[in-house]
Design a protein that fits this description.
Layout: E1 25-30, H1 40-49, E2 54-59, H2 75-89, E3 93-100, E4 103-109, E5 128-131, H3 144-157, H4 163-180, H5 194-209, H6 215-230, H7 238-258, H8 264-280, H9 287-308, H10 311-327, H11 334-355, H12 358-371, H13 381-402, H14 405-424, H15 428-450
Helix pairs in contact: 3-4, 3-5, 4-5, 5-6, 6-7, 7-8, 8-9, 9-10, 10-11, 11-12, 12-13, 13-14, 13-15, 14-15
Amino acid sequence: MSWQWWQKNKKEPSPVNMETKGPEFKVVVADFYDNISSLGAINLAKALNNCEGLAASSYTQSFDHSFLNLENRNIFELIETGNAILSETKSDVLVWGYREKQRLRLNFQNLKQYSGGDNSFVSVMDSFYLPASFLDDEEGVMPAELILLLYGAVVSTINNPSRQYRIYKKYLLKKITHRLSQIDSASSLGLEYLPYVLNFLGIIYLSMAYDSKYDTDFKIVRDLFENALKYQDKIINSTYIGCIHYHLGQLFDCATKYMENRPSSYYRGAIRHYQTAQKHLSKYAYPYDYGYVCCKLSDLYVNYWKQTEDLQALRDAVFQLREAEKIYTQALFPDFWGMIEERLGYLLHNLGFLTDSAELSNMAIIAYQNRQKIVTEKNDPLLWAEIQEKIGSIHYQIGRNKSDVSTLEEALSCFHDALYIYENNGASAKIKQIKFDISKTYRLIEELKEIPD
């Protein structure tokens, strides 16, 4: 693959011009923290607004910019302020700008950044640096190649679950990566920028080819990230090294799902890079990225447990999810927290069953009940009933193992709650199964009552 980067001539950029009309993604560029140039955000929004599929605008309302200095590590305020701007402007992507001497640092955020979805591989901690002069008020004109790269970064950040939006996103990324592949060198901007350029090239290609089954696509993305790590002496903050390992983990993780041949090296590679990322993305300084990596590691350990029946892998999966649970709280991430709780219920249920631990089984019940705080009988009755059925099954197992009639009666109560919902919704297959479970529970209770004390 060849790369030729931005030239010295300062022509007005001419991004991809195509006739295809698809969905429009809204992008907002927040007013930069920049004591020299006051029009950087406006200039960048104008440039992005010329790109197919984007409707970009600048956000110039007054707000406290101090938290944009990532050295302050006030990541909570960054995420919350960004989500507020995204909600207010009804945008898909927010671009932050922060001036560091003669360089600008750009960061990218979407509304579902840390709430599941898995439709974006970009972290808020992925920083892209460029010379500040490119966006200065008077002389700043961004080279077309740089606009193309930032265009790819913005499209990669989009995390809309709608299938038609995902199709259009991938269509745009295919065109962007095709144009990027026509360029000869990635070093013209200067070696100090190279690890950031290579990292974002890797993100763009990963976003386009994450579900590819071809080794060539895997190797292209891996080489981009690994080459970025070769220039890690140019990276200012070690957090960025964590981001690159995070993306390598994502790449190997995707390979375990989509590649036709799935050797154990993919699983090992994903775990190794995710664990390295955790060392750089401290759970105290950068909790959201750390917690998200925990969720990914948990899934990998579950897959390993299913393949090998190794109980330690199941315990590791529970531990990682417990770590994520501490970060993604019900108050700040209710939907994602609910999904974590349901996953915990499943893992603890299995671990409790395999180790014959009533304590773990009861912890599984609590996790499922936490899920029902989000999925209520009123807002999603069928899903609530399915969870209630799972709780009933755990009560049944505990009651059977301990010959405890009262616990079996708890199981009956849960089963009847679910049956009522299934009958009201005409779920015939579920009705048949749960009636069998109810009959089985009644029979066991009668058998236990006949046993003399």
